[in-house]
Amino acid sequence: MTWLEVVGIVVSSVAGVATIVGLIARRLSKKFETSVKNTVEPMMAEYSRVTQEHMQEIKENLTREMVDLKIRLDEYKETSDETDAKMMKSLMDLSRDSINRAYKYFTEQGEIDEHTMYCIQQLGESYTGLGGNSFACDEIEGLKELLKACKHKKKSHTTEGKVGVSCEAK
């Protein structure tokens, strides 16, 4: 056998083996593709279905929880509004009582100083701001008149070299 013949046989053998390997590879590739398609696609479809069900369940739970939360918030707001109204009424009652007590006390004493009058006026503004009526305002006006009378008498009245201590001083 000549060198050329040996090379021809080897080349023919390699070509034959390459053809067989190519055919086997193509057949395996198609089997692999089919196997992947038959295995992965159903798995992906199942995963998609389970995911969709889970997402629907999450949406339903969230919707239920949001409805419950809204109900609780509405109940809290209603309770809070009732509490606010009670507190406002209590503040009004306390303010009115304080103004009434101050009126009685200072008219019995017959005198009031400017700082106390200022504090009572501030209390009166708070009282009317809360919705209070004019009864307390009338008492505050009476105390203002008392303060004016005290200022007038203090200017014109002296006792033992001091400016009058009381509007009632003679």
On the 0-100 scale, what is the average pLDDT?
82
N/C terminus separation: 159 Å
Enumerate how many helices there are, as a single number.
Answer: 3
Query: Nearest-angstrom radius of gyration?
Result: 50 Å
Strand order of the largest sheet: 1-2
Number of domains: 1
Features:
single chain, 170 residues, mainly alpha, two-stranded antiparallel ribbon, rod-shaped
SSE blueprint and pairings:
Layout: H1 3-109, H2 114-129, H3 134-156, E1 158-159, E2 162-163
Antiparallel strand pairs: 1-2
Helix pairs in contact: 1-2, 1-3, 2-3
Summarize the structure.
With 170 residues, the chain is an all-alpha fold. 86% of the residues lie in helices and 2% in strands. It starts with a helix and ends in a 7-residue tail after the last strand.
Description of the molecule:
By secondary structure, this protein is an all-alpha fold. It has one domain (3-163). It is 86% helix and 2% strand. The N and C termini lie far apart (159 Å).
